[in-house]
Amino acid sequence: MLKHIVMWKFIDGALDQSAADHALWMKQHLEALVGVVPEIRHLEVGINTSHSPMAYDAVLTLTVDDADALQRYRQHPAHQEISQHCHAVRSARVVVDYTV
After folding, report:
1. Closest by Cα among 77, 87, 97 to 37
2. What is the pLDDT of residues 34-92, one digit of tens each?
3. If one looks up domain 10-58+68-99 in CATH, what number appears?
């Protein structure tokens, strides 16, 4: 199994939305991928509640079978739509992938 962790900082005011609005949008749309993208074994999106300047706005924890499954997830059209939107509203993104 492979864990894919992604954290985002969003641009406050991008597309006339707050960073909190972008985080909520990501949560709603990523969670909607469950049952649509067959590679997903587990998916969870958390929205930050900390006010620390070091904090990111949202985090994705995704579990898939292996690196090939992760690649298929990334290439799935439903994921691609979310990814394209995210590119327009994020200021930073960090990723960690590890085997469990």
Report:
1. 77
2. 999 999 999 999 999 999 999 999 999 999 999 999 999 999 999 999 999 999 999 99
3. 3.30.70.100
Distance of CA 41 to the CA centre of its chain: 15
Locate the domains of the chain by residue range. Answer: 10-58+68-99
In which residue are the tokens 């200021």 written?
A: 91
Contact present, 89 and 22 (Cβ < 8 Å): yes
Q: Which two tokens stand for residue 62?
A: 């995704």
List, as one string, the DSSP characters of the chain.
-EEEEEEEEE-TTGGG--HHHHHHHHHHHHHTTTTTSTT-SEEEEEE-----TT--SEEEEEEESSHHHHHHHHHSHHHHHHHHHHHHHEEEEEEEEEE-
How far is C-alpha 14 from the chain's CA centre? 17
> What's the pTM value of the predicted model, to 2 decimals?
0.94
